[in-house]
Write a structure and sequence with these properties.
By secondary structure, the chain is mainly beta. It contains two helices and eight strands, in the order H-E-E-E-E-H-E-E-E-E.
């Protein structure tokens, strides 16, 4: 996704941080979203920061592990409290807290 399209959807970022040579972290604080963007690839990763911000495939921040499993099934990869679900060239990452509720939710492109 281009930066222009992202800003059409979310508006102007409330904060921008340079990442490496030409990448940017675009923070949309009122919307509860952070996007990692680079000129070559466009938006590579979107982090959902709040429950109200968005869902990814029906999963939101604060959902229980049981709710995630009922919607998405078993993940492709599990590493401790982190699970990775693959869907074609995209991946969703979920991290659970000590009570087995989603505290991190992101989606991004996977390299071949």
């Amino acid at each position: 996704m281009s930066r222009e399209k992202l800003e059409q959807v979310l508006g102007q970022p409330s904060q921008t941080q340079k990442l490496g040579e030409d990448g940017l972290a675009l923070v949309f604080k009122p919307q509860g979203v952070i996007a990692l963007w680079a000129p070559l690839d466009g938006v590579a990763i979107i982090y959902v920061q709040t429950r109200e911000a968005a869902d990814i495939g029906g999963v939101r921040i604060g959902d229980s592990k049981a709710e995630v499993l009922s919607r998405w099934g078993m993940p492709s990869v599990i590493q401790g409290p982190t699970a990775i679900y693959r869907a074609g060239s995209w991946g969703a990452v979920i991290r659970l807290d000590e009570t087995n509720h989603v505290v991190q939710l992101s989606v991004g492109t996977l390299t071949p």
